[in-house]
Amino acid sequence: MRAIMPNLSKNADDPLYIQLYAYLRDEILAGRAVPGEKLPSLRNLSSSLHISLTTAAQAYDQLAVEGYIDSRPKSGYFINDLRRDGAGSAPAASAVETPSQELEDPQPALLCDPSSFDFAKWKKCVNRVINEHPRMLLSESAPAGEPALRREIADYVYRARGVRCEPSQIVTAAGTQQVVSLLTGIFSRIGIRDIAVEEPGYLPVREIFRERGAVLLPVPVQEDGIQLEKLPENIRCAAYISPANQFPTGAVLPIGRRYPLLAWAERNDSYLIEDDYDSELRYFGRPIPSLQSLDQSGRVIYLGSFSATVFAAIRISYVILPPALARIFHALRETYAQTCSKMDQLTLALFMHLGYYENGLRRMRRLYARKLQRTEAFFESTPGVHIQSSKSGLHMLIRVASRKPAAKLCQEAASLGIRMLPASRYADQADARSLVFYYNRIPLAEIEPALHRLLALWDLS
């Protein structure tokens, strides 16, 4: 490969690492790089281009994620042969399906931001599990989940959210909906059939409760969270709530209303299901303690998930059961099939143990906070778009002054790779022009250009 001499500019729209990545990608695709050739080390590259080690590493990591180069431990970075097949020659396109075709995504081409997660470190952990612990992969996972992962979760939630628990109280599952299905089985053992749910609220969880025979009791949500006075009295039930970041409104239940909520649960011999789904991704203000950390009577069931803080496809969620409910689960655990990949669980346990998870979380907070600020600034200067809530770490609620129905606005957004959903999907009384906008998915440098294209398509004039 000829000398690496990209024209990098700090004044360009794209970050430096994206500019460097694009330059190297184009050099490889143009054939100016020999397959198998070693690239300069990170230190040499950063020194020659007068950029930081972090910028060089981000560019190489992106190339590695997309398959242009390969990282070899203790050896460096090498250019991949993009035409290679099993026989070492380029096959005819009509004769053999290429790997990219085999892995073609059938979903709409939504914008995404691979830089929000360090896939290179995840790959290192995958390789360590395979190389150092292959015997563990030859048996099924424990019903409650891998002990190593449950220990890491117990340590982490105590540091991050003040949640007190033993690993034996934790059960992992493939997604929050699987966790909810598990809970309905436990509730049936103790005679709980009524479930209070937030209105508006997270629709998939409601559907799981309903499909399992639960009676749903909608409770309105106001600016500071669920309306406590609307909770049922003298009925033993469970209340599914997200006090740290209510979906989709972003409402936060203040500390002064959490103690009355706990008192309600104890007074009615009921349970609170605390979905803390993205409490780590709050960027402004002081974090409020979890409900579970305030609970003195074993009334809070704590739910957590890694889908928002690792990557969506990981599908690992967990539930922390109060001691009384944990005993019920362990009496029945042989009838519970663990639904999480053991490989993924062991990789995540190592990823957390090495500190990669919390380091990545801090980086993700900084990145998403900048995306939020940039998105807010854009919409605040846009006639016809009103920000209704931007408290969530993953999305914002906006109202669009348009004659088009919300479904049509979302369809047009999707055609540009932007994910939006009608807020009416989560509450019948929601404003017909309110949309849930997942700004976090768009790369930082593409936010303004993407939103300009969206406004041109919406035509709000």
Output the keywords.
single chain; alpha/beta; 461 residues; globular
List strands and helices in order, with pairings.
Layout: H1 16-29, H2 42-49, H3 53-65, E1 69-72, E2 76-79, H4 99-102, H5 119-132, H6 147-161, E3 170-173, H7 176-189, E4 194-199, H8 203-211, E5 215-222, E6 225-226, E7 237-241, H9 255-267, E8 271-275, H10 291-294, E9 300-305, E10 317-320, H11 323-332, H12 342-353, H13 356-380, E11 385-389, E12 396-400, H14 406-415, E13 420-422, E14 434-437, H15 447-458
Helix pairs in contact: 1-3, 2-3, 5-12, 6-12, 7-8
Description:
The chain is of the alpha/beta class. The protein contains 15 helices and 14 strands. The protein has an eight-stranded mixed β-sheet. A four-stranded antiparallel β-sheet has the order 11-12-14-13, covered by helices on one side. Strands 1-2 form a two-stranded antiparallel sheet. The radius of gyration is 24 Å and the shape is globular.
Overall pLDDT: 85
> How many H/I helices?
15
Q: In terms of structural class, how would the helical and strand content be classed?
A: alpha/beta
Percent of residues in beta strands: 5-15%
Distance linking N and C termini: 51 Å
Query: Can you list the strand order of the major beta sheet?
Result: 3-10-9-8-7-4-5-6
Main β-sheet, in a few words? 8 strands, mixed
Number of strands: 14
Task: Name the helicity range.
Answer: 25-40%
Secondary-structure element series: HHHEEHHHEHEHEEEHEHEEHHHEEHEEH
Low-confidence stretches: 84-100
What does the oligomeric state look like here? single chain
Principal-axes geometry comes out as globular
What is the alpha-carbon Rg in Å?
24 Å
